[in-house]
Amino acid sequence: MTYLTEFLGAHAAERPDDVALYCSKSQLTWAELFNQVEILGAWIASQTPEDGSVAIDIPTSIEFAVTFLATANAGRRAIIYDNTWSPTIRSDVEKSVQVDLCVSQTSFPDIRTLPCASLSIKTPDADTPLMVGFTSGSTGKVKGFERTHGSWVSSILAAQSEFSMRHDDRVCAPGSVSFSLFLYALAHCIYVGASLRLCQQFQPKNILADMRSDRSTVLLAVPTQAKLLIDMASRSGVPLSDSLRLIITSGAKWRGGITNDQQCAIQNAEILEFYGASELSFVSIARPGDNPPANSVGKAFDGVEIDIRGADGTSLEQGRTGAIWVRSPMLFSRYVIGESPECMWDKGFFTVGDHGYLDTDGFLYLAGREMRMIITSGANLYAEAVEAAIGVHESVENVSVIGIDEALRGQRVIAFLKLKQNGCKPNAREFAAICRSQLGRHAIPSKFYLVDDWPLAASGKTNHQALLAMANAPEALPQL
Known about the structure:
Layout: H1 8-14, E1 19-23, E2 26-29, H2 30-47, E3 53-57, H3 62-73, E4 77-80, H4 87-96, E5 101-104, E6 129-135, E7 143-148, H5 149-163, E8 170-173, H6 180-192, E9 195-198, H7 204-214, E10 218-221, H8 223-236, E11 246-249, H9 260-266, E12 270-277, E13 281-286, E14 299-300, E15 305-309, E16 322-327, E17 334-337, E18 344-346, E19 349-351, E20 354-358, E21 364-369, E22 373-376, E23 379-382, H10 383-391, E24 396-406, E25 410-419, H11 428-438, E26 447-450, H12 464-471
Parallel strand pairs: 1-9, 3-4, 3-5, 4-6, 8-9, 8-10, 10-11, 11-12, 25-26
Antiparallel strand pairs: 1-2, 6-7, 7-17, 12-13, 13-14, 15-16, 16-20, 18-19, 20-21, 22-23, 24-25
Helix pairs in contact: 1-2, 2-3, 5-6, 7-8, 8-9
């Protein structure tokens, strides 16, 4: 059990006519997928050196999935391009990352015309580089992280013990494969033999229709996406899917719980929340059986060590907030482009700059990211803490808190809100009182801007950079 496509042939032999992949109106059975991966993989191997790299410049689609799996099957390294990149970012990546072959929408070969697979291909092992993904593109600077087959297989096995994905599961992953959560969904489903629906765009109405048509059993999404789908299903009075058994979320903290109407929309589906990062893979999971405290992200996955460290690098006692350092067999290998000062290795441990603490029972709590720290009136303030305080208000659907540089306080705190359509009309004084009581006067935003068209990144998470751009023209936004 060392490489990603190890069981693809077995799935095809056991269930040749079952659908393996859906995307929009296209689909492939397991037999069709295996055949295309074998043929395209042999072609890729013939076009590249044994340790070569293949840039995949294809948006979320069946063609992307086949190319990624064929590249992995050939033992080549997949470079996952993002079609939302600016020309500058694309140029930086192309200058910095070795690419031996680029497969795009226009250069994707007609597999029907390629010769049947006959080239002898060396089977990948656990140490073979699988892919290079990219993070932080919305800031204008990207980091390219490399992961091996062994790293991803370890992640799949760890997740499988928690999620128990089955051959008869039908999984919906409503986000771009350029974001590692949804690329991981493809990898996990292919490895264990579950059917997967990929989504070219996050269009809640269409995704909801597909989930009902597919009778989806698993939804894997970031909380923003999951809540939008649940709210839409709740308003329609029809469940997300009459077969839904599991909702898996990550990428942000799930806040606010589930209302009675929302519970009807998800019926008896269990919600599992995990914390992780592209470089770290799985770190912790909130298992219902552990009775996790409301604000925690659960306990460490099996095989994961978590160490909370202070600024001087020493381990902190339970209850104290510091940088979250992680060691496990699921970690990435290295950065191939870009680095950040908060991202560091030390004796097999790695940190991405997230801060948090462990309680006496081993539950992990997130405070925020070092890169989103706001320094105001001489105090350090986690933007995520203010968002959490405001976000539990019954009127709030989405919230983002940002620091704006100014001479007097260092940074001024402002908040962007999207309000629910539930008739509740809050005012700024309510939110100010919440922030003051929970965090202190310095945490009160000076302005509360209302945004109806909430910007989402390709990952499905809030696009804080887009909101920051709006802050440069605040006269265009209504305020509380």
